[in-house]
Amino acid sequence: MSARPKIVVLDDYENALRRLADWKPIEAKADISFHTERLRGDTLLAAIRDADAIALVRDRTPFKAELIAKLPNLKCFIFTGQRNQQLDAEAMRAQGVAIGITEAGSSKFSTSEVAWTLILAASKRLEAHLSLVRQGKWRDGKGLPVTLAGGRLGIIGLGSIGQRIADVGKAFQMEVVTWSPHMTPERAAAGGAESVSLEELLATSKVVSLSLVVSDATRKLLTRERLATMREDAILVNTARSALIDMAALPAALDAGRPGIAALDVYDDEPLAKDHPLVGRDDVVLSPHLGFVNEPVFGKFATGVVENLAAWLDGKPLVRPYG
Questions:
Q1: Residues with catalytic function
Q2: What is the pTM of this model?
Q3: Where are the beta strands (DSSP E) in the chain?
Q4: Distance separating alpha carbons of residues 323 and 320, to the nearest angstrom
Q5: CATH architecture, range 108-286
Q6: Taking the domain 6-106+294-313, which CATH number applies?
Q7: How far apart are CA 64 and CA 239, in angstroms?
Q8: How far apart are CA 16 and CA 13, in angstroms?
Q9: Angle (deg, nearest 10), helices 126-134 and 108-123
Q10: Using one digit for the tens of pLDDT, what is the confidence trace for 5-32?
């Protein structure tokens, strides 16, 4: 490469890619710009129009064919982790762009921890009580904290994350039931749970936690009609993907009182807009997609991005090509 290539790093909200890897070898050969805030529309295009390489945290910015066609200089595209539901990889490759990935790292523990943080915050009305103390107050005369022991915990998707959520539920002496498209009674029993129908799980569970991968069979699994079958005191928890819920129907479902509370870590569009209909409600607990955010995972992300960029700058194959 004769001129210095231009590399753009997008959506590093945590400033972790820059902080957790040694960028000196890359900086010696290329001009790099880091962006720690979300960019969209004309602002995004202005930042990446002349980029030779783009590095992206997960799928925080969609790259569809229309946007890719406006990037004539793009030769290398790296995203962290190994799955990207917002990338038109076919359009990238048609334009001759090399696509790289990084090690995924394990977010199983951190995601299950965030799920239980949300469950406890919702059941104990923790946000409201913390706010009272900060204001020099003590009680607000509203709902009492809920005891979870003896209640039913419904796990939708008893994979590695769902199993960890179930194990904590059992430690709290909750009854654990589960459903997924291919669940069997034997597999559920091996995980210390009972296999039930989706209808029974929704109608009887005090806490419903989503831990499924999005597929054609599970997209918008929780429709307006299914949300309406939940208990009035149910806590709906989602640390998986927002596409599992009909998010457009959720505010109305909460208005109708079923479920009683939504505790969410994932959303259709992130970061969540200030005027989103869920923001400011008393019957929601909202966290900023923290499930996969932890130091070991982002350390692998950062190292993987730098390794791929170094190989590309040296004219070598990407260390971890996509697909």
A1: 241, 270, 289
A2: 0.92
A3: 6-10, 31-34, 53-56, 76-79, 98-100, 152-156, 175-179, 194-195, 207-210, 235-238, 261-264, 284-286
A4: 9
A5: 3-Layer(aba) Sandwich (3.40)
A6: 3.40.50.720
A7: 25
A8: 8
A9: 70
A10: 999 999 999 999 999 999 999 999 999 9
